Amino acid sequence: xxxxxxxxxxxxxxxxxxxxxxxxxxxxxxxxxxxxxxxxxxxxxxxxxxxxxxxxxxxxxxxxxxxxxxxxxxxxxxxxxxxxxxxxxxxxxxxxxxxxxxxxxxxxxxxxxxxxxxxxxxxxxxxxxxxxxxxxxxxxxxxxxxxxxxxxxxxxxxxxxxxxxxxxxxxxxxxxxxxxxxxxxxxxxxxxxxxxxxxxxxxxxxxxxxxxxxxxxxxxxxxxxxxxxxxxxxxxxxxxxxxxxxxxxxxxxxxxxxxxxxxxxxxxxxxxxxxxxxxxxxxxxxxxxxxxxxxxxxxxxxxxxxxxxxxxxxxxxxxxxxxxxxxxxxxxxxxxxxxx
Length: 340
Hints:
The chain is of the alpha+beta class. It contains 8 helices and 11 strands.
C-alpha cells in the first residue's frame, strides 16, 4: 500500500458523482474564506483537503476529496454574473486582503441563497413541462366519460414557495449588508429588513440622483413585495396572507397551472392574484440577479470614479465567453479612449 503524506502535492479529476458521464470544463478556481471552490461550466465543487476532513490528525491516512455544491456552473448567469463578476471587480476597491476575503465570503453566501431561489424556479419549470401535457392527456382521454380522474399535482408546492421567499429575503438583507461595507449605512439585526429606510438613507446621504439611490428607489416596490410575501407565508394573518393553489380543474373541463394570491393589505395596502406562480417567481428571481449585478457594478464604479488609472468597462457582446457570462471587467482608463 502506497504511503500517503498530506503535505505532498497532488492532482485529481473533478467529476460529478451524480452524472459520471458529464465532463464539463473547469473555468475558474477561487479561494473563498478558507476554502477552494472549483467552478466548472455546469457545476461548482468545494475541495475537501485531508486537513479539513480531519483537522485533529486523528487518522493520518485520511485522503483529500471534493463535494458538489451546485448544479449551476459558469454557463449560468446566476454564477457568472454574481460571485465570478464580483471576483473580477471588487479586488480593486478592497484595500486589504482580509477585507476582500470578507466581502467575497459574504457575497458567496448571498449567491448560494440566490441559487436556492433559482433551484425552486427550475424545479417548478420541470414540473410544469411534465404535468401540463399529462393534464391535457387526462382530459382528452376522458372526453366521452362522465368523470375525470384527479389531476397530478406538484408535490410540496407551498413548501417550495416558502423556500423561495425565505431565501429571497435573505438575499435582499445580504445585499444591503454588502452596501454597508462600503457606505456607513446603519443596519442592525433588528432593522436589517427595513428596506424602505435603507433606501431613504442612501437618498439622504449620497443623494437622490446618485445611481445607487436611483436603482434602489426604482426597485423598492418589488423588494418590499418579496419581503412582505415572506412575512405573510411565515406569519399568516388578516391582511397578511399567501394562498398557493396547485393544478386545478376549471369549468368546461379545463385546468389551470399553479397560481398564487398575496394579500399584503396590512403593510403594503394591496391584494393581488391569482397570478401564474412560475412566471412570478421567475421574474422575481431575475430581478434579484440584476440587482446583485448592478450593485456590484455601481459600487465599483463609484469607488473608482476618481481613480487616475483604472476604470470598469463593459465587455463587448461578441467577446463575452459563452462558457462564463461575465459582462464587466477592469481596464486602464487610456484603453477606454481608444476602444477595446
